[in-house]
Amino acid sequence: MAEEQTLNDLSDLGGATGAGVAEAEVREPQIDAQGRSYATGRRKNAIARVWIKPGSGKVTVNGRDIEVFFARPVLRMVIKQPFQIAGRVDQYDVICSVTGGGLSGQAGAVRHGISQALTRYEPELRSVLKKEGFLTRDSRVVERKKYGRAKARRSFQFSKR
Fold it and tell me: Which DSSP helix (H) or strand (E) runs through 82?
């Protein structure tokens, strides 16, 4: 018959108390030689490469000002959300290049990139941005068209004759 072990016997296997519990990882700021933090943001088919550095709050997208590139106020609001949540409005300059997708997807990609870059510049902001869901990549993409279908799910019109 096998030996039965009590909880005290099992706790002795771990060695020193708390050795089995991992210490909370302290994140280091990731800042390059120019004093910037870099991150990649993605949304739908859009990919945004984002650099942030301390500044006056100027946002440049593909070499153009944010008001020119994102003409709709809703898209500009989406991009500025991470700064408002973190309480860092007009404290960072943002330079980003965006490719793919439409304007809405690009705005979402820039927001995701800004959030990631903020956590790399100031790791203590991670919990605030994560709670709001800005660090999670929105994985929803357009469903592909299937063979034998008119669109992704729509069937061709049925005809009896």
Answer: helix 73-86
What's the CATH number where 128 sits?
Answer: 3.30.230.10
The C-alpha angle with vertex 104 and arms to 99 and 106, in degrees rounded to 5, equals 25
69 part of a folded domain: yes
Question: What burial letters (b/e) apply to 99-113, b meaning 16+ CB within 10 Å?
Answer: eebeebbbbbbbbbb
Q: Among candidates 68, 47, 57, 46, which has minimal Cα distance to 94?
A: 57
**Does any domain span residue 110?**
yes
What tens digit of pLDDT does each residue of 63-102 get? 999 999 999 999 999 999 999 999 999 999 999 999 999 9
**CA–CA separation, 160 vs 28, rounded Å?**
68
Using left for φ > 0, alpha for ψ between -120 and 50, and beta otherwise, residue 101 falls in: left
Backbone angles phi, psi at 85, to 5 degrees: -65, -40
Contact 126, 96 (CB under 8 A): no
How far lies 93's CA from each of 56, 65, 83, 90, 99, in Å?
6, 11, 11, 8, 20
Instruction: Work out whether the CA dihedral 26, 54, 129, 108 comes out positive or negative.
Output: negative
Query: Token digits for 120?
Result: 């790399």
Token pair listed for 65: 């000002």
